[in-house]
């Protein structure tokens, strides 16, 4: 049991050592009892040790501003300053922006006109196809009605012909009957 506790405390110590910064490790090696508010200077930064905590040591790292740097340290480049614009330059930029706005507006209007024209073409084509379909459907219907009328007329003509033939046959049968009655009687 004590071995397990010793191993777990050793592994916790090992993890803690990994977490400690190199600076705190070096400081703790040189000064086992640091003085409060001790300030260490390293180039353009200051390291100030804070009160010792129960969980370990704590430090405050203060970076110096570029103006506080010594001449030996490399000079950091500052962002370029904006130059003051003259009235003519501002006017020229405003005119260029207005021209860009007008150009963009003209392009949008042109695109809208092209889209509208395309919609008109599509609508015209749809109407034309609809008219063609209606015309073809009407022609087809007229053809079927004409064909139906011709078939009906042909059928009626055939019925009339059969009726006429029946009447002729009936007339012939009557005549034959009358002739037989005259001969017999």
UniProtKB/TrEMBL annotation:
An annotated GO BP: negative regulation of Rac protein signal transduction
Record flagged with keyword Coiled coil: yes
The UniProt record lists the keyword Coiled coil: yes
Pfam families referenced in this protein's UniProt entry, alphabetically: Stathmin
Comp. bias regions, Low complexity: 65-79
Gene3D superfamilies registered for this protein in UniProt: 6.10.280.30
Protein name: Stathmin
Region described as Disordered: 65-87
GO cellular component, one term: neuron projection
Gene Ontology molecular function: protein domain specific binding; tubulin binding
Superkingdom per UniProt: Eukaryota
Recorded family membership: Belongs to the stathmin family.
Record's keyword terms, sorted: Coiled coil
Species of origin: Coturnix japonica
